Amino acid sequence: MLVQLGIFGGMFVGFGLIAEYRAGVIESMRVTPASRVSLLMGRGLRDVLVLLVQASLLTLVALPMGLRAPVAGVIVALLVVGLLGAAFSAASYAVALTLKSEDALAPLLNAVAIPVLLLSGILLPMALAPGWLRRLSDVNPLKHVVDGLRALFRGDLWSSSSLLGLAMTVLLVVLGTWFGTRTFRRESA
Description:
Blueprint: H1 2-11, H2 14-23, H3 25-30, H4 36-62, H5 71-99, H6 102-120, H7 131-138, H8 141-154, H9 160-188
């Protein structure tokens, strides 16, 4: 659930940017001397903060329902959710600035989100899938993030699954931030 929160919580923030674009807020930001990276990071950090509050509440609600996980694993898992939110929000802002239309953004995000969600093993473990689908899911970095979070909640902080999940999360953050800042700079030129 936490990975799903990070994905969808970050992925759909671009809709707000499109509304701000239409209202002239983005044009006003463009004339400021602020760095384009700072403008993107400020928005992204706001989104991450919202996601961290939601993920913390979700985890706290799970405790009376039987969740037993080491505190260190939960803290690292919350960090991963925040990083996922940062990656997907930066990419969402970039796509929103490029498309500038909710009518174009919604189907594109859904066309990406649904296959990524299904191939990540969030809903069903990929061990139940046929071999060809398991091999396809191995290419999906979010499958490794999901496996890593499961390992963290089991207490396997230094297992290969948790380290690979963290590495994939960092890779997604780097790619999302690069794409977002590149688009912000290009759109501001």
